[in-house]
Design a protein that fits this description.
By secondary structure, this protein is an all-alpha fold. The chain folds into 2 domains: about 100 residues, Helicase, Ruva Protein, domain 3; about 25 residues. α2 crosses α3.
Length: about 160
């Protein structure tokens, strides 16, 4: 029993230690020596979508395509390109989908506006639902029912 506890605790400790190694996708050979450029590269990489993982940034991805994009971004930074120029280059090459937060343009207006419209319509619908009270219909009793009711009440 003691041996099982030891193995289990060792396994849990190993898992916790490994979490730190997979926190970022950037490999040591990709990292720039200039700290400011490296910070900019990480900032850009965090906003660029991995084309393989789809819902993950290239900064967090281990895919080969993500590695290639991280290297490309660092090369552009070394060339002296601004962040916006790098984003523009990536969008021209891969389309607006490459950005985790697409820009507000005419072709993405529906993407940005639809959630706001849905929320607005939901609030209006909820307001109308809560405001609308069921109307009680007054049921009129027939002569026979009135007499039966009077008889029951008098007893």
């Amino acid at each position: 029993m003691q041996k099982i506890k030891y193995l289990l605790s060792s396994f849990i400790l190993l898992c916790f230690l490994m979490v730190g190694f997979v926190a970022h996708g950037a490999n040591p050979d990709e990292i720039l020596e200039d700290v400011k450029l490296e910070d900019r590269a990480r900032e850009i990489s965090a906003k660029v979508r991995c084309m393989v993982c789809q819902n993950q940034s290239i900064d967090d991805s281990e895919a080969e395509v993500a590695r290639d994009l991280r290297i490309l971004i660092r090369e552009k930074l070394v060339e002296g390109k601004s962040n916006q120029e790098i984003y523009d280059f990536l969008v021209s090459k891969y389309g607006e989908f490459i950005l985790l937060q697409p820009r507000l343009k005419s072709n993405t207006l529906l993407l940005w506006g639809l959630p706001i419209l849905a929320l607005f319509l939901g609030i209006i619908g909820l307001f109308m639902f809560l405001r609308k009270k069921p109307q009680e219909e007054k049921a009129e009793l027939s002569k026979e029912e009135e007499e039966a009711l009077k008889k029951l009440l008098s007893e």
